[in-house]
Amino acid sequence: MRPDPLANLGKCQTLMDFPADFIRFLTSAARVVVLTGAGVSQESGLRTFRDAQTGLWAQYKPEDLASPEAFARDPKLVWDWYAWRREAIKGVRPNPGHYALVEMEKRIPQFTLITQNVDGLHRFAGNQNVLELHGNIQRVRCAECRTFTETWGDDTEAVPTCLVCGGMLRPDVVWFGEALPRVELEAAVNASRTAHVYFSIGTSGVVQPAASLAYAARNKGSVVVEINAEPTPLTPKVDFAFHGKSGEILPQLVRAAWRN
């Protein structure tokens, strides 16, 4: 049984007082878009990509482990790094912020969750309409023919190969220097442009092209909301900003908006 998404509310020392007009905008919205970044996963205890450069991996720069050039130069090194990351993520579970977004999706007619995270925690929590802009570390595909596979071995001397064409397998994530997946990006832009309420949660608001989605929403008249640990360059442009842990703010927001 998954935990109550609102159970964390009682642990908060200070309860949020959300503006009445904000609650009214949210509960009357037919289309809501949420963009999440690394801050949401950090609250589950997951290290960010750069913070994970510890121990054996401390000698490498992230760019040396996450680029097409790195894979061409030393594919086994890159494969092993991502195998290590997948293993580290296995013990990580969604936090109350993830589950609050699941509850929000149930109450909004058209809800789109766009994430820059590759950990798959939103799907694990139960969100259905998820656009993974940077891919998913749990998926593996062929570097040549792009065929996806559900089984592979991490304990071999060489990088596992594709059963279709024999090409080397790689994680289905966006590396430095690669474009975002076109279908997901177009869907994210279209959803943002038609949103009644747009949330930017746990993201710095500077990584492009995801950072531009808030402005696409704002330019079309969306109510733009930021939830982040600290102010960002987006903060002066939003209609409502709530600074603190999303794992505390989101459950409180769902309770305030949908008490019944």
Describe the protein.
- The chain has 260 residues and is an alpha/beta fold.
- It has two domains: 7-46 and 94-134 and 179-257, Rossmann fold, CATH 3.40.50; 50-91 and 140-173, 2-Layer Sandwich (SIR2/SIRT2 'Small Domain').
- The chain is 32% helix and 17% strand.
- It contains nine helices and nine strands.
- Helix 5 runs parallel beside helix 9.
- The longest helix is centred in the N-terminal third of the chain and has 15 residues, at 75-89.
- The two termini are 22 Å apart.
Walk me through the topology.
Elements: H1 20-28, E1 31-36, H2 38-42, H3 68-73, H4 75-89, H5 96-107, E2 110-115, H6 121-125, E3 130-132, E4 135-142, E5 148-149, E6 169-173, H7 182-193, E7 197-201, H8 212-219, E8 223-228, E9 240-243, H9 246-257
Parallel strand pairs: 1-2, 1-7, 2-3, 7-8, 8-9
Antiparallel strand pairs: 4-5, 4-6
What's the quaternary structure here?
A: single chain
Please count the helical segments: 9
Percentage of β-strand residues: 15-25%
**Main sheet specs:** 6 strands, parallel
* CATH fold-level topology of the largest domain: Rossmann fold
Can you identify the CATH superfamily of the largest domain? TPP-binding domain
What is the averaged pLDDT score? 89
Physical arrangement of strands within the biggest beta sheet: 3-2-1-7-8-9
SSE pattern, N- to C-terminal: HEHHHHEHEEEEHEHEEH
Runs in which pLDDT lies below 50 for 5 or more consecutive residues are none
Q: What's the total count of β strands? A: 9
The backbone outline, from C-alpha atoms, is: elongated
Distance between the termini: 22 Å
* Global structural class: alpha/beta
- What would CATH call the architecture of the largest domain? 3-Layer(aba) Sandwich
Domain module tally: 2
Helical content, roughly?
A: 25-40%
